[in-house]
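The following block was generated as part of the benchmark described in Methods. Ligand: 6-sulfanyluridine-5'-phosphate.
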Amino acid sequence: MSVHPTTLKTYGSRVSLHSNPTAKRLLEIMERKQSNLCVSIDVTNTAEVLEIVRGVGSKVCMVKTHADIISDFSSAFADELVRFSKELDFIIFEDRKFADIGNTVVHQYQSGPLAIASWAHLTNAHPIPGPGIITGLSSVGLPLGRALLLLGEMSSKGNLATGEYTKKTMQMAKEAGREFVVGFIAMSRVDPEEEEDWLMLTPGVGLVQGGDKMGQQYRTPRDVILDSGCDVIIVGRGIYGVKGGKDAMEAEAEKYRRAGWEAYEERLKRT
Ligand code: S5P
């Protein structure tokens, strides 16, 4: 397999290849904190989310949330998360996986009890409804400096986001332009070699390969960053699932940060 040119560039040198402020900030943070680790905080109350943020925030470039599973979500919580994102220097990614027509996603993104666009720097969408979903989301997010990822591939067993679907997702992003769509959720680099710089964020990561009982499949940070050329590893239960509280989580996050960063440094040495 040939080496994808993007994988030979440093995160820092890629900042100037982006116009979107969230994409730029993410790459700057990655370089500054030497971290390509996103922690996925999939717990169901705000106190627990904030405890995990306090424990691992200094180790990560990004915190990923599922706001709709947090039973006591409030705007005060969102403010607190934003405050932490400044203090501890990370991007907030709300993993909303929008999947409706443009007009509906405008409201889902902007309104309701979650008001996602008001606090999340980054969110994501399935391409299944067609380009109108990007038009809708960007009408809300672009003026706020927000960014969007499209789900081009998934980590779960038997998913339908493969082959032609993935190629068409890439095509849709290209046609939308990189002002608002900045990259993909994908398992490997799905962008053609001579194209612009796209960010590849990859879930389904564990320190050992494996899976869960509901179809999730795990690959190691090295597989994802070095072998598959992705940019960010997304780790949920591998970090917040460890026993021993805040200190244990911090130690586990540091293991992932180091594994992800070493794989990146190794990849920069390839020719
Ligand atoms: O294909 C995907 C896309 C996403 S965003 N597979 C995933 O697992 N995710 C998300 O990543 C998922 O919703 C969860 O929040 C996280 C993985 O969590 P873990 O506990 O399995 O590491």
